[in-house]
């Protein structure tokens, strides 16, 4: 009898154990099923402040439309981002969707077969022609633009008023402004040039104002003048003239723009002007709320006797979004790009970041955005950023030599010859 009870208890124990194990397996299967039903799309970007909020809003709309899909937003600083993306692309571990500026920087990835073509997936009519052009190669589209970026000279209106300074129309008038500011212990131009691109705005503007709007295209297309043209030599000389007259703070090549070192000179009113992209306003709204009331902007002045004009602007597309060829979810990634560059996103960029949309049918109620958009529409020529248009090796030489010009460690002639030598090799 006792043995029979023990046998029954043993059978019952085994049955219970099997039941528990079966339940655990069912739970595990359910968990695995849930995991398999969830899809993650990675998005790498460099947006901050209002631009970041614009992307977050787009992602929220996308996730609402695509149940079970999660977008992982990975924010990076500008300069480290470029290196990290290049490494990820080369290593075969890129994000599904990534920020770029189009031009030669994106084209190198396209030529390597690392970017998905999206010509048929997007409606080109939704975008400004100039915005879409930078990510179009051989009539095939590899990216969709969200914003346009211009480079005006931002200035403190109160400082100008205090010292009876008028907005300069010519370079000679700008030099007078610089001398007046210096005599009152105010730094004329804030500049943080550790990452090299902020100082390049001066070279691009001087070269255009002296050599005219065709100068860069002739050098880039190897059809006429080169990067060693006298206009580039004179542009380099004007940079060094400004450095030597004290137009910039000391040690600009050691100052970091991403961490706000030049912007803080503006906010603290130690400096009166800064030549910087449209997103400077977005940074100001985040860094120093209310300071924008003191800000104005004007086009970089014309140079007497030069072939350029102050209606010619330096600018580009920022950002444009592309899909990696290695994405495991290319269709979803493309849909995300479309959401990131929708009319809603364009409107957010204007309203939240004071930006200029590369998307049509956006309204401009933000005062700064409206004025900037007007400036863009009235521009007779838009000079795209050299470092985003040129092949990477030439862009690097351009940035390196321009930084050296600010450091007074190279002559203008040497700088021009170095860039031309690089162009001859890369642009055969």
Short descriptors:
D-Maltodextrin-Binding Protein, domain 2, 18 helices, Sugar ABC transporter substrate-binding protein, 428 residues, 4-stranded mixed sheet, 2 domains, alpha/beta, disordered N terminus, SBP
Summarize the structure.
InterPro entries: Bact_solute-bd_prot1, SBP. This protein has 428 residues and is an alpha/beta fold. The protein has helices spanning 2-37, 49-65, 78-91, 103-111, 129-133, 157-162, 171-183, 197-211, 214-221, 230-244, 261-267, 279-287, 330-340, 343-353, 367-378, 386-389, 392-406, 412-426; strands at residues 39-45, 69-75, 97-100, 136-137, 140-141, 144-145, 147-150, 153-156, 187-189, 271-275, 295-298, 312-317, 320-323, 356-357, 381-384.
